């Protein structure tokens, strides 16, 4: 990794522009089969980030809570995780397993994601791998309990982040994105992919 922030490993510029373009094309295929949606939180508030998933499991949220589901809210199974994305997992995860969920998060202009832990998975020994595409995003990491000092880093298009070991359960979020900082996505915005073992 080029940066290590509290055990969170950042591989800056791991994907070059052609690799990013190929991945965006694969993501368009996912979105064509499994349309983006704005999840409703259990508190009844709409999230500002739009989402969809690939893989055996996708992440859904509605009035009955957050959970992994084998089906898109419209009913069908999720599309397969593209080889381009599985490749990145193979390069950086150090895991012997295959990811079961590729969550696709789309941040348009003012979207953000509040500080949270990822703890809906069964194996905290397995890492989470994230790929940033498009506009820069201000990523903030905290501690394994809520509150305390935090550190921030701008994630750029082509950066890959690995959260394993003690970093797996740290609070983290995206405070904002820098609109217009990248030409990768035709409509602008930031896409983040997160790869996880769920079961
Ligand atoms: C640190 N996504 O989908 S990715 C999420 O950019 C999520 O869309 C953010 O947090 C995004 O849950 C941040 C980086 C990330 C992902 C998972 C983590 C950092 C993490 C799990 C544990 C610790
Ligand atoms: Fe998260």
Protein traits:
binds fe (iii) ion, four-stranded antiparallel β-sheet, 13 strands, 199 residues
Mind sketching the topology for me?
Elements lengths: L2 E3 L2 E4 L5 H17 L16 E5 L3 E5 L2 E5 L13 H10 L8 E7 L5 E4 L11 E7 L1 E6 L9 E5 L4 E4 L8 E7 L11 E7 L3
Antiparallel strand pairs: 1-2, 2-11, 3-6, 4-5, 6-13, 7-12, 8-11, 8-13, 9-10, 9-12
What does this structure look like?
- There is one protein chain.
- The chain has 199 residues and is mainly beta.
- The chain has a single domain, classed as Sandwich (Jelly Rolls), CATH 2.60.120.590.
- It contains 2 helices and 13 strands.
- The chain has a 7-stranded antiparallel beta sheet with strand order 1-2-11-8-13-6-3, with helices on one face. Strands 7-12-9-10 form a 4-stranded antiparallel beta sheet, with no helix packed on it. It has a two-stranded antiparallel ribbon with strand order 4-5.
- A hairpin with a 2-residue loop joins strand 1 and strand 2.
- The longest helix has 17 residues.
- The protein starts with a strand and ends with a strand.
- The structure holds N-(carboxycarbonyl)-S-(naphthalen-2-ylmethyl)-L-cysteine and fe (iii) ion (FE).
């Amino acid at each position: 990794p080029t940066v290590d922030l509290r055990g969170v490993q950042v591989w800056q510029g791991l994907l070059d522009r052609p690799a990013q373009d190929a991945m965006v094309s694969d993501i368009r295929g996912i979105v064509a089969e499994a349309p983006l949606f704005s999840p409703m939180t259990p508190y009844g508030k709409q999230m500002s980030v739009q989402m969809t998933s690939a893989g055996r499991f996708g992440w859904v949220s509605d009035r009955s809570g957050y959970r992994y589901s084998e089906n898109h809210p419209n009913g069908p199974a999720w599309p397969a995780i593209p080889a381009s994305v599985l490749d990145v997992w193979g390069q950086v995860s150090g895991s012997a397993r295959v990811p079961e969920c590729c969550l696709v998060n789309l941040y348009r202009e003012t979207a953000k994601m509040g500080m949270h832990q990822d703890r809906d998975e069964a194996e905290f020994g397995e890492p989470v791998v994230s790929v940033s595409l498009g506009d820069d995003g201000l990523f903030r990491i905290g501690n394994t309990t809520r509150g305390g000092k935090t550190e921030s880093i701008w994630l750029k298009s082509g950066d890959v982040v690995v959260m394993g070991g003690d970093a797996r359960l740290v609070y983290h979020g995206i405070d904002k994105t820098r609109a217009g900082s990248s030409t990768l996505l035709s409509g602008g915005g930031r896409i983040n992919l997160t790869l996880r073992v769920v079961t």
